[in-house]
Structure prediction request, 207 residues.
Amino acid sequence: MNLFSKFQNAGKKPDLLTYDLPEGLRVQIVLLWEKGFGPDERFHPGPGMAYREICRILCEEHQIYSLSQVTGSDLPLRESIRAYFHSVDTAKALFVIRVVFNVMEKMLHRINDGDGDVFYKSQYRSPEVIDELNRRFRENYVGYQYVQGRIEKIEQGPEPMPLKERLVAGEPARNIRKIKDMIGDATVTSIHDPYTTTGSLGAHIKK
Prediction:
């Protein structure tokens, strides 16, 4: 299925990453976690339990009594987390994402003694929701990913050199051949390598 975000970013180069969280992506992430937890209804207590835990962690870590101190509105937990996520800066918003999906991994479809599955109306498992989160990051060319309970930054830059072209310690003859193959008929004017010395260059030239 073609997604709107793919059309929206069709003209952008995928290697140009941003480290902000645009409003559209924040909307997608909120809709995603709400879909993952399932509907917050009277006889479906799981989402309410999850949102209470998320609020507790956010208030403790961000040193506030309630999320309404930031949002300015006294809302139900679900809407309060949503409003808070949309109102804070990127660093705090990334922490919200980490907390929400941590809670989802720990609580979603876990069976409580005597209560059964309190998320029985959710049709999703946490791994597939997290896969979709990381897909949304990629589609929006935002340089983060959720991995094993952490938000990791994807560094900007060229692809690493293929293994077949890297030099290997203890294999001088093969390394010389690799360097020769990469240089070809070109003229080397400078080398930017803290481990290359005049002596090692002399050895390469002689070979």
User: Anything to note?
Assistant: Strands lie at 111-112, 116-117, 144-147, 150-153. The chain has a mean pLDDT of 83.
